[in-house]
Design brief:
- By secondary structure, the protein is α+β, with helices and mostly antiparallel strands.
- It has one domain.
- It has four helices and four strands.
- A four-stranded antiparallel beta sheet has the order 1-2-3-4.
């Protein structure tokens, strides 16, 4: 079952530190609301759109998208959105959708 957005907001609304790809810096989630998850890096700040993450969660849940971390990044960029796909994959991994 796809994680409800309310659960996602509860998980990230006060921020979180997520381990990223091997060799990369930790991803800082700075908050979440009804439409976005907000993220920051030492050089940038951005947001990840709810609709895109929900689409990815649905495809992963249905087995229509690989759950391999590296492949998810490319699939997300190509078929869902070119919106920080590595960051999205890191969030999906933290939510348990990606290995």
């Amino acid at each position: 079952m796809v994680t409800s957005w309310a659960e996602v907001v509860r998980r990230y609304e006060k921020g979180a530190q997520l381990p990223s790809m091997p060799g990369a810096r930790t991803l800082e989630v700075t908050g979440a609301d009804d439409e976005y998850i907000y993220v920051a890096h030492r050089l940038w700040q951005d947001k990840i759109t709810r609709g895109y993450l929900e689409k990815a969660m649905q495809l992963l849940e249905e087995g229509k998208m690989t759950n391999d971390y590296g492949a998810v990044v490319d699939y997300y960029r190509t078929y869902i959105a070119d919106e920080r796909p590595t960051t999205a994959a890191t969030i999906l991994k933290d939510l348990g959708y990606v290995r």
